[in-house]
Amino acid sequence: MVIMIFTGVFGVNxxxxxxxxxxxxxxxxxxxxxxxxxxxNICAAIEQAGGEYVLLPQVRSADFKxxxxxxxxxGVASTGALTKSAGKRVRTNSWYGSNAAEAVADVDAVxxxxxxxxxxxxxxxxxxxxxxxxxxxxxxxxxxxxxxxxSYCLDADIPVMGFCRGMQMLGxxxxxxxxxxxxxxxxxxxxxxxxxxxxxxxxxxxxxxxxPHDITIAKGSILYDxxxxxxxxxxxxxxHQALKSVxxxxxxxxxxxxxxxxxxxxxxxxxxxxxxxxxxFHPEAAVVKNLNNAENAADFMNMKEALKFFEYLLDVASSxxxxxxxxxxxxxxxxxxxxxxxxxxxxxxxxxxxPDEAKSKAEEILLKNFGGYTIQEANGGWIDGDTVxxxxxxxxxxxxxxxxxxxxxADELIRAFNQSSVMIQANPTKTExxxx
Length: 436
Known about the structure:
By secondary structure, the protein is an alpha/beta fold. It has eleven helices and 19 strands.
């Protein structure tokens, strides 16, 4: 006898037990500064494309100790970047010993947003930081979280799309080399650079807006399918670093911008994955500029062009979701009954037990009646009129049992949790509300 219990969300962000008709959920890689436009613009773009999103939890490694604020206790250099030894540990052990799998358990694709420079200790060949004080902008704890999460997504072939820093992280994980400062790089080549990738800041208080530029796209690439052609104009750009080369990696360059005779990498994809795409620019910024009717909105790609990136991601996420649900269905074809047990008191609508107590009580009853169980946690909820109720909900899967045994166990659960009924589904289609 095997019993699986997990808590599920019966609503917008449903878990793996939800209907195949439900929308896919896009996970946005954790970042602490959720007021950043690099995050809020992504949220707006996903919504405009008709999608749903959730900010993923921070991914932590067993190789590091964390403070109460979630920051690393050790392994951070004076620059704010990871130290060489810390970077080596992350690259060597990757997502193993982390919560990466749990972080993405209920999402169907992951977006990695823009932001800080990536610690050079994470590069395939470690190098010193660029040494430019005014450009010093590292976030060691986010580097660890992003590296572990993306590594897991790549190994599990979960759809990934990275923007700006997100593209660079895909490159770094895959072994690409990095230009740590584009103006310095061009100066070293003796070539002209007119800040095509980020506007010059003339005063400390000035808002440093995106710089628009065009890109040329490679045929046969995912990006070509997204855009629908070989050119895309008005790409919002805001970065001083870039990928230099993807030679001897599983990446291919799918878009470029020629600057003074140098082809700057503007998009990449992993050739061994279903969807692992990175772009160096910010289509989400164009979405928001068009939404807000910004004065310079016409300088950038239009709304239709910008939304194509997120519509494509939603399509891929839908396919991934369907595949995942099909796998779950195949795995549990021997399930005879599914019980949905609420844990809020039927009279007060308040929890009868704490989540830990509810699990223990359910385990006690189920073990007595059936002999085994497995539990996975989440949140539950439902809508009644205009009121949204949150509830810790147990979903119980049963096999090799009878209706009488299920009803006997349901009687005990109803009494213990003071419920009016338990919803019971008999595989595959019969449903009843059992009230004793």
